[in-house]
Design brief:
38% of the residues lie in helices and 16% in strands. It has 417 residues and is α/β, with parallel strands linked by helices. The strands form three sheets. Strands 4-5-6-9-10-11-12-13 form an eight-stranded mixed beta barrel, surrounded by five helices. It has a three-stranded antiparallel beta sheet with strand order 1-2-3. Bound molecules: phosphoenolpyruvate and magnesium ion.
């Protein structure tokens, strides 16, 4: 048995330059590290991110979470079998004992949980993606690349948070990357020609000073065409609205600054879907607006409707959404729930009920590429990890390219519904 011999944590920085926690787990001289990411448009039911809330680092330092790893967690998982992820995670969950991991902090717990998963693979001498429940016939996920940033990830006034492309006709992951590359480079030229800024937002997509959703969509349509692809066939446009951010007293300001009813908002979506051949929409409505979600799904059966803040990678909320017929896909963010075991439970349940599973980064992320391995190791058919820009985003795509090469298969893309 390979036992945990030491656990240490330290403060490092994420892609927004904010402090975050890195934990390192040891079996003798061998160790693995994991860095916890952090969201900006968060759901209120997410697991708790422990920060110090004192003046230093604008309240964002994580020294309390580090103390919890070094002084509390480390003692409890010492001598435990590194390959028994479920046991270690259950110890962490029990040790915290709260519904949203408020005592120890989900950031302290998750960084340890992921480091354990990584170290187990290292000691078994298998690639990390082979250390999940899928054991053969691995597929590569389709990238959902966020190429124009808005909402709280940019300061341009765009209502919708993420304008993404998905290269549906790609037969291999490298082909998917090459399609996205062309579209992004052409988009850059088009934005430049309009005398707009090509500076990027938190997830590496361009953040030009435009404040109208349709202007952004037209720029993308143009760049798809200029790259020689057909929108809606070769490539689809996908959105993350982050509806929580645009909600006030039963109304939404999705399509303009004006707050309008759910019915009018749905009609606005239906027009956009038709005009721009949109294939996927994430968080079109707020996290507690269950009926708005099911009304929308009834009217847009061909759409991939993705719950992010709605589900927060939480099994109870996913079950509620399933009964309510709220969506047909789920975004998976390990730090919304706090352990690898609970993340896998949610993915397995989602796959059982026929939901698409999309593994996702956070807007504050790092060089850690765990989610690339998770996507392949669970046969999730999509990954959302920003644009082909900013190293914390590109690192995840580069890791998938390495995995693709290891798998030595030509047609190994996951199936899209
Ligand atoms: C998202 O909303 O899907 C996202 C990745 O952003 P954040 O990490 O800010 O929640
Ligand atoms: Mg989202």
């Amino acid at each position: 048995m390979s036992k945990v011999t030491k656990v240490i944590a330290r403060q490092v920085f994420d892609s927004r330059g904010f402090p975050t926690i890195e934990s390192e787990v040891f079996c003798g001289k061998i160790s693995s590290k994991a860095i916890c990411p952090s969201g900006a448009s968060t759901g209120s039911f997410e697991a708790y991110e422990k920060r110090d809330n004192n003046k230093k680092y604008l309240g964002k330092s994580v020294f309390k979470a580090i103390y919890n790893v070094n002084k509390i967690i480390s003692k409890k998982i010492l001598n435990k079998d590194i390959h028994n992820q479920e046991l270690i995670d259950s110890i962490l969950i029990k040790l915290d004992g709260t519904k949203h991991k408020t005592k120890l902090g989900a950031n302290s717990i998750l960084s340890v949980s992921i480091a354990v998963k990584k170290l187990s693979a290292k000691i078994k001498n298998v690639p990390l993606y082979k250390n999940f429940y899928i054991k053969k016939n691995f597929n590569l996920p389709y990238p959902l690349m966020n190429i124009i940033n808005g909402g709280v990830h940019a300061n341009n006034g765009l209502r919708i948070q993420e304008f993404m492309i998905r290269p549906d006709k790609a037969r291999t992951f490298s082909e998917a990357m090459s399609i996205c590359f062309s579209i992004i480079q052409n988009l850059k030229k088009i934005i430049k020609d309009r005398k707009l800024s090509t500076a990027v937002g938190d997830e590496g997509g361009f953040a030009p000073m435009i404040n109208n959703n349709e202007v952004a969509l037209n720029l993308i349509v143009k760049s798809i065409k200029k790259s020689g692809f057909v929108n809606g066939k070769d490539v689809s446009i996908c959105l993350d609205v982050a509806g929580n951010e645009l909600y006030k007293k039963g109304k939404y300001s999705i399509h303009s600054k004006d707050y309008i009813s759910i019915k009018k908002s749905i009609n606005g979506y239906l027009k956009l879907i038709k005009k721009y051949k949109i294939k996927s929409i994430e968080d079109p409505f707020a996290e507690n607006d269950w009926n708005a979600w099911s009304d929308f799904l009834k009217k847009s059966q061909d759409l991939q409707l993705v719950g992010d803040d709605l589900y927060v990678t939480n099994l109870q909320r996913l079950k509620k959404g399933f009964l309510n017929k709220s969506s047909n896909a789920i975004l998976i963010k390990p730090n919304q729930i706090g352990t690898v075991t609970e993340t896998l439970e949610v993915i397995k349940f989602a796959q059982k009920i026929g939901y698409q599973t999309i593994i996702s980064h956070r807007s504050g992320d790092s060089e850690d590429t765990f989610i690339s391995e998770l996507a392949v190791g669970t046969n999730s058919n999509q990954i959302k990890t920003g644009s082909l820009c900013r190293s914390e985003r590109v690192a995840k795509y580069n890791q998938l390219l390495r995995i693709e090469q290891q798998l030595l298969k030509k047609n190994n893309m996951a199936k899209l519904k």
